[in-house]
Amino acid sequence: MNMVKRPRRLRGNVTLRKMVRETRMDKSSLIYPMFVTEGRGIRHEIPSMPGQYHYSLDMLPAALEEVAEAGVSSIMLFGIPETKDEQGSSAWAEEGIIQKALAAGKKAVPELYYITDVCMCEYTSHGHCGALGGHDVDNDKTLPLLAKTALSHVQAGADMVAPSVMMDGRVAAIRQILDENGHEETPIMSYAVKYASAFYGPFREAADSAPAFGDRKTYQMDYHNVKEGLKEALLDVEEGADLVMVKPALSYLDVIRRVSEQVHVPVAAYSVSGEYAMIKAAAMKGWIDEAAVVCEAAASIYRAGAGVLLSYYAKELAKFMDEGRIG
Question: 0.85 cut: is pTM over it?
Answer without folding.
Answer: yes
